[in-house]
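Case study 2.
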Amino acid sequence: MISYPITLDGVTYKHIRVMSIKRSFSIYDGVNAGRVQSLDMDRDVLGTFYNYACEIDSDDATPAEYDQFYEAISAPVDSHELTIPYAQTTLTFRTYVSNGTDELTAMLDDFNRWGALSFNFIAMAPQRRPT
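Prediction:
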């Protein structure tokens, strides 16, 4: 089974496995972009943002480690520092999380098992700007 490393705010969660990473990009234009009289598009490119959708598997994590990650990812903070796979290496950038979901998979005598956590990382600033 493939899993991917994730480091959030300087903490690497060794037993929190990222089972699915989907990255997307958005190229933002400024106020001067738009169609001209010939209907050609006039661009005012400001930068490219890379965003990630992640799904977490918690089977290898202790309940305490999962809870620690859940508290970190759902913290009411402006941003996080994220290190995540990108191209043939990793990318570290400031990001925010606005929502996520998980599900209760088992209620045992000593603990609850949560899993199938999914959320989106949205870049705080463009990772690439025009040259």
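The longest strand covers residues 17-29.
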